[in-house]
Amino acid sequence: MITNCSAGVSAFTCNAYLVTGERTVLVDAGANYDVVSAVREHVADLDAVVLTHTHPDHVENVPALREAFGVETWGFDPEREHVDHAIADGASVTLGDHAYDALHTPGHKDDHLVFLSRAAGVGFVGDLVFAGGSFGRTDLEEGDAGALVESIERLDAALDGAGIGTLHAGHGPEIDDPRDGVAASLRAARFAR
């Protein structure tokens, strides 16, 4: 089961997805609200926090999660604050009951990751793409419009034949038609470059 622990929060934060099952994981920690209480509404404990990237709105709640659950964090670059363990490009990560393939997708931020599971039919895309054909901003530090387009192209190729029915984005609603949604984001990102 996947639950957005940030649903209904009016503070500046990202979506923080609780994935329950064999390995209960929070995908992104969020910021500026009591994520610990939100997680505890659903589970008593966490096995890990997995980060799509380390922008403040995705990681500021990490210290509170560490203190409450004694949990460690996983992300692309363990040299970054809030990342304890590395997830390499192409690695397999268990979220809930399914294995997800990690794709390194820079452009919005150098350490950005996307997670896709053919078995679950689900993906977590952080701030790479959003519903409505939008895409991650590139005007922040480490932003690179050319790299973002290449990362969206990589996601688009990975979706081909993967049977992914839903993409959970870092902000806003989920993308229920991933092939069309990512294609629209790719067109918009190419145009904006």
Description:
The chain has 5 helices and 13 strands. By secondary structure, it is of the alpha/beta class. The protein has one domain (2-192): Ribonuclease Z/Hydroxyacylglutathione hydrolase-like (Metallo-beta-lactamase, Chain A), CATH 3.60.15.10. The strands form 3 sheets. Strands 1-2-3-4-5-6 form a 6-stranded mixed β-sheet, covered by helices on one side. Strands 7-8-9-10-13 form a 5-stranded mixed β-sheet. Strands 11-12 form a two-stranded antiparallel sheet. α4 (145-159) packs antiparallel against α5. The longest helix is centred in the C-terminal third of the chain and has 15 residues, at 145-159. The termini are far apart. The model has no long low-confidence stretch (mean pLDDT 96). This is Flavoprotein. Keywords: Hydrolase, Metal-binding, Zinc. InterPro entries: MBL_Glyoxalase_II, Metallo-B-lactamas, RibonucZ/Hydroxyglut_hydro.
Which helices and strands appear, and what pairs or packs with what?
Elements: E1 2-4, E2 17-19, E3 25-27, H1 35-40, E4 48-50, H2 56-59, H3 62-69, E5 73-75, E6 85-86, E7 92-95, E8 98-104, E9 113-117, E10 122-126, E11 129-130, E12 134-135, H4 145-159, E13 166-169, H5 178-192
Helix pairs in contact: 4-5
GO molecular function, one term: metal ion binding
Domain Metallo-beta-lactamase: 13-171
Keywords: Hydrolase, Metal-binding, Zinc
> How many helical stretches?
5
Rg, rounded, reads 15 Å
Q: Give the CATH class.
A: Alpha Beta
Percent of residues in beta strands: 15-25%
Shape, principal axes of CA atoms: globular
Element pattern in H and E: EEEHEHHEEEEEEEEHEH
Main structural class = alpha/beta
- Overall pLDDT confidence: 96
**pLDDT below 50 for ≥5 consecutive residues: which ranges?**
none
Number of strands: 13
CATH architectural designation: 4-Layer Sandwich
How far apart the termini lie comes to 37 Å
CATH superfamily: Ribonuclease Z/Hydroxyacylglutathione hydrolase-like
Which topology does CATH recognise? Metallo-beta-lactamase, Chain A
Widest β-sheet, arrangement of strands: 1-2-3-4-5-6
| Count of folded domains | 1
Pfam families: Lactamase_B
GO molecular function, one term: metal ion binding
Protein name: Flavoprotein
InterPro entries: MBL_Glyoxalase_II (IPR051453), Metallo-B-lactamas (IPR001279), RibonucZ/Hydroxyglut_hydro (IPR036866)
